[in-house]
């Protein structure tokens, strides 16, 4: 197997397992441990995984955000509930911003019943879902495509956002610590902040597993959002911190 195919195979394997040891990968792909280390170095340098002692992981950390494909598989049922509940914040005829997150991105499949709408997004999954849908005016943010985040970022996306105004924006975040949102990537943070600045109302959609985590870059205080949607009851200390900071929390529990 050529190196490109093997590295893709490593990523596909990690999408299912989350972590893997060097020994496991060497055996699976029939190569030396040194070859595996070279593959992991290359994939880490490209931002697709992080090397850990004895192996590699695509699970998030304070410095590393997971690949979009892996995040789509996590807390799937809860994310679907959040997206279905959040569309109640939209009225026909409005302009809606949807960010690159896998949670906020789930809103796209619910928008047909609210047409006509204008939708602005840098999320390729959202763009693909809505392209050609009647009654949806789609504004796809330009910029440089990130395979890891499955979205578009950079100067073109940022300049476009500065020129637009929307009724409502839906965002996700990878980490909630206290009453603040954080993210591992500074370019993603910059784009999300511009989306917030462009919208009259702002909502954050985060599965409950994001609470109690932190990441390198501060995104915003949660009180900047009109409401924060999550899918499970939080611990008393977390809930107290949010209430004390004046955060409007919407709990979307199972029926």
UniProtKB/TrEMBL annotation:
<dbReference type="InterPro" id="IPR037171">
    <property type="entry name" value="NagB/RpiA_transferase-like"/>
</dbReference>
<dbReference type="Pfam" id="PF08220">
    <property type="entry name" value="HTH_DeoR"/>
</dbReference>
<dbReference type="GO" id="GO:0003677">
    <property type="term" value="F:DNA binding"/>
</dbReference>
<protein>
    <submittedName>
        <fullName>DeoR family transcriptional regulator</fullName>
    </submittedName>
</protein>
<keyword id="KW-0804">Transcription</keyword>
<keyword id="KW-0805">Transcription regulation</keyword>
<dbReference type="Pfam" id="PF00455">
    <property type="entry name" value="DeoRC"/>
</dbReference>
<dbReference type="InterPro" id="IPR050313">
    <property type="entry name" value="Carb_Metab_HTH_regulators"/>
</dbReference>
<dbReference type="InterPro" id="IPR011991">
    <property type="entry name" value="ArsR-like_HTH"/>
</dbReference>
<dbReference type="GO" id="GO:0003700">
    <property type="term" value="F:DNA-binding transcription factor activity"/>
</dbReference>
<dbReference type="InterPro" id="IPR001034">
    <property type="entry name" value="DeoR_HTH"/>
</dbReference>
<feature type="domain" description="HTH deoR-type">
    <location>
        <begin position="3"/>
        <end position="58"/>
    </location>
</feature>
<dbReference type="InterPro" id="IPR018356">
    <property type="entry name" value="Tscrpt_reg_HTH_DeoR_CS"/>
</dbReference>
<dbReference type="InterPro" id="IPR036390">
    <property type="entry name" value="WH_DNA-bd_sf"/>
</dbReference>
<keyword id="KW-0238">DNA-binding</keyword>
<dbReference type="InterPro" id="IPR014036">
    <property type="entry name" value="DeoR-like_C"/>
</dbReference>
<dbReference type="InterPro" id="IPR036388">
    <property type="entry name" value="WH-like_DNA-bd_sf"/>
</dbReference>
